[in-house]
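[User]
Protein folding is very new to me. Any chance you could explain this protein sequence and its structure tokens? I have pasted everything here:
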Amino acid sequence: MTSPLHQMTMGYSAADDRLMLRLSTRDMTEYQLWLTRRFVKVMWKALIQILEKAPQASPQAKGPVMAAEHMEAVRTAELSRKHDEGTKKATPEPELVTGGTVKAVAGGLTRLVFNTKGGLTYTFTLNKKFLHLLLHLTASCSARAGWDLEMAVGSGNVVMPADPTRPH
């Protein structure tokens, strides 16, 4: 994939007991990927490690900073928007992800590589907002699926002010 990401959505299929990750690029190509519980569990851990390695003011600030960044990214995302339907699908059917890698790259970006059962490899580069969005969608859909996975970003003791212009 060479075009930047434009949209990301996720849903749960009870019939397949899988999450469907839909990623669209600015050139309107859509990638549909099935994620299993096993893969999600491994991917989650790798994505959280990327966030934990990001420089913070102090080691004690790591959890609260991660949580605050996550809450801000989710708050500003258009989560109620449906996935654009005018896209061109990269494959006729969704691909089952069987493995992959997660790696921090220059500029605070995260490279996510998905290997599929069909032998295809998809590479996506996520900025921090898309990374937090992926974490949020994964946690929400995994909870809806009843997968009983522990998924938290940072410490849960962060309260965002109701009015973002006021510091307290």
Q: What stands out?
A: The chain has one domain: 5-145. Strands lie at 5-13, 18-25, 29-35, 88-89, 95-105, 109-116, 121-126.
